[in-house]
Amino acid sequence: MKFNISHLTKYKYASEIADSVNEIRLTPRTNTHQTCLQSRITTSPQAPIYTYEDYFKNLVYSFSVADPHTLLTIHSESIVVTSNEEPVIKSVLTGAQELEELASERFLDDYAEYLHPSEYTPITPDISQMASQFEASHTFASLADKLTALTAQIKNDFTYDPSATQVQTKIDEMIQLRRGVCQDFAHLMIALCRTMGIPARYVSGYQYITDINGGNADFEQASHAWVEAYIPGVGWTGFDPTNNVPINWRYIILAYGRDYKDIVPVKGIYHGTPQQKLDVIVDVRQIN
Amino acid sequence: MFDARGTIRTHYQKLYDQLQQLGTSELISRSEKIKQQMILQGITFQIASATQGAERTIPFDVLPRIIPANDWSMIERGLNQRVRALNHFLGDMYHEQRFIKDGLISRRMIVNNPYFLPEMMHLDVPENIYTAISGIDLIRDEQGNYFVLEDNLRTPSGLSYIFKNRILMMHYFPDLYFSYHVRGLEKGTQELLTTLQDLAPNNKKDPVVVLLTPGRYNSAYFEHAFLAQQMGIDLVEGSDLRVINQKVYLQTISGRMKPVDVIYRRLDDSFLDPLAFNPNSLVGVPGLMNAYRAGNVAIANAPGTGIADDKLIYTRVPDMIRYYLSEEPVLKNVPTYSLRNPEERSFVLDNLEKMVVKQTSLSGGYGMLMGPQADKETIKAFRAQILGHPESYIAQRAIRLSQSPTLSGSMIESRTIDLRPFIFKGKQQVVLPGGLTRVAMEKGSLVVNSSQGGGSKDTWIV
After folding, report:
1. If you measure CA to CA, which chain A residue comes closest to B111?
2. Which residues constitute the domain of residue A232?
3. Average pLDDT rounded to a whole number, residues A184-212
4. A42 in a domain, yes or no?
5. What is the ipTM of this complex?
6. Pick from B461, B95, B209: which is nearest to A55 by CA?
7. pLDDT confidence of B448, banded at 50, 70, 90?
8. Which end of chain B is more exposed for a tag (fewer CB within 10 A), N or C?
9. Domains with residue ranges and CATH for chain B
């Protein structure tokens, strides 16, 4: 499916600010799931853009605005084609072979950064307890089964609630509240996977949502986050613990990382008043 | 000063004779004058664990430590070799990772090391120099063998004390100093500046070098100010620098913007750039990492060097020397045991009273067990900690460290010493003659760290 994506970020400051430096991770990836045909970023005030590929092969745009200003807009536009093939969550090795692979020295080295706790995905006593309860509650024929069941359980046990948490929320707090947003759901699943010895990474992107009349939805919720877990013999496989639906043509991938900290879509530092108003308008449209 | 039979080692003979002539009361009086001078000049140090603002002078012992030129030439070769290997290792870890691929270290140990910076991966640093300034801690056992205790490759401190100690000794003990042909330090600060200038991107002539300090509340602020002044470079804080279009500028008092080529930073990695690392850092320079990535500025030492001076990585340095240089290490490591390994662990646990146990993530003498001096309770507590997190500890056989005569009150007594020489790596690599001799001021203590009350001595290569 072909999409035209417009992602507009507007900062309005209460008084003039200066020396603003920024990093943007909003360029769709190209891989087996999708192809990014076009992508560009424009800013106002206008600024020369410096690009590089980060450790996770995300394309990063960086720019600075030194002169005083009260308004900063960052407009990212791209055209992406996603694969129409319905994803199949599968294992190719036997359950025993998968476990043997996960425990092998070579595997522990190759996926080290995705097995290690991170700032947003610490392995706390709560997480360890949840993981062992989950593992004791079922028997799983394969990792594909296990990860599918885990996704369903998180979706079932937690409530999606945009008012419950903030961008800095860590999973311990989310577990207490039993609610959160996609970022929290993703971090929770990542931490649980890592506790069980399964490599997991954070995916930021968009989920295309149509309204009842089949038209294009136009709201911020299009920005989304989910998880990829590594199934030996198969590879990185996507899961959405917020919605428990397959990662199909509706999902557009922007960036990968160990957790949110690696993929912050828009971040900046400036000199001046902390009083600012942020508006984000994301528009994902299907095109022919 | 004395050998095992109690006779004076030949290179200390003149010092001994001079001390006899001088007499104790004169020695004490000069020592007091030096102490006054240090307070006047603000040569102070803050202790992290003490209540805020607790500043004091680092105890200075007036009796110099003397190292004969023969020993020194071996040490110098060993240090040069070690720094070359460590620098190769860093370049390799942040590029091809051959040392991992060839099975000499596990990938986990690097990518999950808290000092590993993904931001440094595939970033080409100026002149391929990561460790422009290294401080390598050496100890000497009773037989006179030198061992490397620890590598310091991030922001090693102590340089200013070396220069300052020398100035004080030359001023207050000219008779003693000039009775030897001591290798001079006059060129030291110039060599440091040349090393930093060598890193300037695009071989720029007369590059602008600045020293970036976290500010006057930092424990080593005196050192930052002293070194900047000696080199004739600007001492700046993060707020004095701005990054515009991946170029770093210094805002001068006249309002002019001066482009900066080389930053000798005395901030930890995580505070260096709030855009790339800790967003709450108020002492860093936002956007610095992208200026660095774009090749417009050099940072000394490079961010991410902590993966090479970790206490676990330390055990692999002899392998690095063999691997990257095809040479045998000139300086040996202290025999070290990994507590991850069950066999080594049980050996260590059975011999805790003969071991020095260190927590791998802590430095400055914190989180340490000194087996030979610890009471049963402490040993018991450490045993439990080790069993809880064996991977967080290493153990080293406690070495009977060499002692040096030290003025304590009105007596001259033996105290434990170590040595931190500094190595500058620019287009040339040089070792500053001598280094900082640290001395445990408490009788019988083995801990020489200044954060734990240790003092220092001037170090003479003769």
Report:
1. A113
2. 95-262
3. 93
4. yes
5. 0.93
6. B95
7. confident
8. C
9. 187-300 (3.40.50.11290), 335-398 (3.30.1490.270)
